[in-house]
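Before the break, one more example. Copy the sequence into your notebook; we will annotate it together after we see the structure.
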Amino acid sequence: MKKNRTDFQSRLGKGRKKHCGTQLMENYFKLNDLTASKELLNDIISYAVKRNSWIKEHPSVILHFQQAIRSFIRAGYLIALQEKKTATTTQLEGISPLVLGLLSEKEFQNPLLVFRKAFKEYSVKEFDYFMSGMVYFSLGIYDHLPERNMISPYIHLSKMLDAAYLILERREKN
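Here is what the structure looks like once it is written out:
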C-alpha cells in the first residue's frame, strides 16, 4: 500500500501575481492619508523620546499603522530595485519651497533618489527594527531611551512618504 502524505505547507505564495512597488504604494495611499501618516509618525517618534508619557492613540491604531508602514517600506524597496532605469524627472518651474517639504530640489525632480538613498543607508530590517522600537517606546513609560539613532530613519521615512506621493501624483497626470 502506498502512503499518502498531506501537504501542510502554505500555498499563499504560489500562483499569486507579483505586484510592483507603485501598485503597493497606491494601495497604501488608498487606505492612509499622507498628512495623517506623517502626523502619526511624528507623534510616535515624539512620544518615544518622552520618558514620562505615552501616546494617546489606541494601541490597535498604532499597531495597524506599524504594519502599514512595514508594507510601505517594502514597497519603497521594490521601487528602488525595480525602477532604477526609469527616471521620472520634472523641471522646477517657479515652485515654492513650501511644496518641496523635506525634499531637496533634486529629490523633487527625481523622487526615486529618496528611495535609493534611504536603502543605501539602511536595510529593510533596520527600518523594521526602528519602527518596532519606536512603537514599543511610544506605548509605555520606560526608564531607558532607545539606544540607536532615531532621527535619520525618521527623516528617511518622512521623505519616502513625500516622494511616494509625488511619484503617484505624477503617474496619474501622465
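Residues 92 and 109 are 7 Å apart (CA to CA). The radius of gyration is 19 Å. Try to locate both features in your own notes.
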